[in-house]
Specification:
The chain contains nine helices and 18 strands. The chain has helices at 3-23, 47-52, 54-57, 92-106, 134-143, 163-168, 185-198, 211-215, 248-259; strands at 60-64, 67-71, 81-82, 85-86, 114-115, 122-124, 129-132, 149-150, 154-157, 170-179, 201-203, 208-210, 226-231, 238-243, 264-268, 295-298, 304-311, 314-322. It has a four-stranded antiparallel beta sheet with strand order 10-18-17-11. A three-stranded mixed beta sheet has the order 4-3-8. The chain starts with a helix and ends with a strand. The relative contact order is 0.11. Pfam families: VanW. InterPro entries: Glycopeptide_resist_protein, Vancomycin_resist_VanW. Residues 1-19 form the signal peptide. Keywords: Signal.
Length: 324
């Protein structure tokens, strides 16, 4: 081998080494690939430490599909009681399920007050319902310190219709009272029978009320007796005794109650041939079946009802309006 060849070989080796060194020059920082997290495996996290402290941290560690994962869920502290039941250590979802089961046994639907369509009074009082407030109770359990006792939160449920609402919409719009100056047994009997016939009588909007139409003919078969009346004669008014005597005090008391009500229009009324003592002059309303009647029309927007009361020698007639 010649001297020239021996010189070339070292030069080639030097060139190769130089090229190799050049290729190893470091990349700029902005091109350096950060591989610090590439080789981080799940097993590098110490889940046992988290699990051991889960109660203090308020989280629960679960193993899902064979892998350690963290499912963050609040838990109730130890020995927290709801009444006599220990909820301590339960997760939020477990406690909620237990509360919902308890609520299903406690919850009660409300019942509305019942309106009596005959008397316009409350037939049956309302009943309030109750409903367990699961969310508020659950929050109290979660917030409670260890060893504390928590009470169940139960809300009161109001019914749709209450007694107060019914009574508020039934109003007395007219009332009048007269004194029974003649309290003879037969006369009081006739007045009582007339009151019983009129009591709870209703007049709808646009309808006309007739006193004779409601009472009908006064007869012995209905219980009416002979009692004093003021009879019209050719010689003037005279006292007489007829079946049903005394009921003119009922019709006159009713008339004066009707007078107090706007929208109730009197369509027929007759005065006695002689002044009567139980009402002011000119404010009486005599009735004779088939001859003279007392009538009025209800021009109001709501139905009205007649209520009669005979007590301690006094006769009271109320006109009641139902706005329910």
């Amino acid at each position: 081998m010649g001297k020239k060849t021996l010189l070339v070989i070292p030069l080639l080796l030097f060139s190769f080494a130089f090229a190799s060194c050049k290729s190893r020059v470091e990349k700029p920082d902005d091109q350096e690939e950060d591989k610090s997290y590439q080789n981080l495996e799940k097993q590098d996290i110490d889940f046992s430490n988290i699990s051991n402290n889960s109660n203090d941290m308020g989280i629960k560690v679960e193993n899902i599909a064979g892998e350690n994962t963290v499912n963050i869920e609040k838990t109730i502290k130890e020995n927290v009681y709801l009444g006599e039941e220990n909820f301590g250590g339960l997760t939020e979802s477990e406690a909620k399920k237990r509360l919902e089961d308890k609520a299903a046994k406690i919850n009660k639907e409300p019942a509305s007050a019942v309106f009596d369509k005959v008397t316009w009074t409350v037939e049956k009082e309302e009943v309030y319902g109750k409903k367990v407030n699961v969310q508020k109770t659950l929050q109290k359990l979660l917030d409670a310190p260890a060893g504390q006792k928590v009470e169940l939160v139960v809300d009161k449920v109001k019914p749709d219709i209450t007694s107060e609402q019914i009574e508020k919409n039934v109003k007395i719009i007219g009332s009048y009272t007269t004194v029974l100056l003649d309290a003879s047994e037969s006369r009081v009997n006739n007045i009582m029978l007339a009151c019983e016939s009129l009591d709870y009588e209703k007049v709808q909007p646009g309808e006309e009320f007739s006193f004779n139409g409601v009472l009908g003919k006064r007869t012995r078969s209905k219980g009416y007796e002979k009692a004093p009346i003021i009879k019209r004669t050719k010689d003037g008014p005279k006292k007489a005794y007829e079946i049903g005597g005394g009921i003119c005090q009922v019709s006159s008391t009713l008339y004066n109650a009707v007078r107090e009500c706007k929208g109730l229009k009197v369509t027929e009324r007759h005065t006695h041939s002689k002044k009567v003592k139980y009402v002011p002059k000119g404010r009486d309303a005599t009735v004779v079946y088939g001859y003279m009647d007392f009538r009025f029309v209800n021009n109001r927007k709501h139905p009205v009802m007649i209520r009669t009361y005979l007590k301690k020698g006094k006769l009271t007639v109320n006109i009641v309006e139902n706005r329910n």
